[in-house]
Amino acid sequence: MARVVVEVMPKTEILDPQGQAIVGALPRLGFAGVADVRQGKRFELEVDDSVGDHELEQIAEALLCNTVIEEWKVVRLP
């Protein structure tokens, strides 16, 4: 079995209201110096060794992200 992480983030040109809400809340909570926050999603998959990179890409595009507004990357963990 292999462990794979799929990281999904909003594309840079897409407004991230959740990230902006976090940036606004940080100073009120006493945290200074954070200029920007982008909130994304992380999926951890345990897959058979037979699952190839191309199939993982298909899974990410078909189910885990909205390719119109999000970008993603697959990372195989050691």
Automatic annotation (TrEMBL):
Belongs to the PurS family. The gene is purS. Part of the FGAM synthase complex composed of 1 PurL, 1 PurQ and 2 PurS subunits. Transmembrane segments: none annotated. Part of the phosphoribosylformylglycinamidine synthase complex involved in the purines biosynthetic pathway. Catalyzes the ATP-dependent conversion of formylglycinamide ribonucleotide (FGAR) and glutamine to yield formylglycinamidine ribonucleotide (FGAM) and glutamate. The FGAM synthase complex is composed of three subunits. PurQ produces an ammonia molecule by converting glutamine to glutamate. PurL transfers the ammonia molecule to FGAR to form FGAM in an ATP-dependent manner. GO terms for biological process: 'de novo' IMP biosynthetic process. Its EC number is 6.3.5.3. Its main location: cytoplasm. It catalyses: N(2)-formyl-N(1)-(5-phospho-beta-D-ribosyl)glycinamide + L-glutamine + ATP + H2O = 2-formamido-N(1)-(5-O-phospho-beta-D-ribosyl)acetamidine + L-glutamate + ADP + phosphate + H(+). It comes from Nocardia panacis. Pathway: Purine metabolism; IMP biosynthesis via de novo pathway; 5-amino-1-(5-phospho-D-ribosyl)imidazole from N(2)-formyl-N(1)-(5-phospho-D-ribosyl)glycinamide: step 1/2. This is Phosphoribosylformylglycinamidine synthase subunit PurS. It is found in: Cytoplasm. HAMAP family: PurS (MF_01926). GO terms for molecular function: ATP binding; phosphoribosylformylglycinamidine synthase activity. Keywords: ATP-binding, Cytoplasm, Ligase, Nucleotide-binding, Purine biosynthesis. One of its GO terms (cellular component) is cytoplasm.
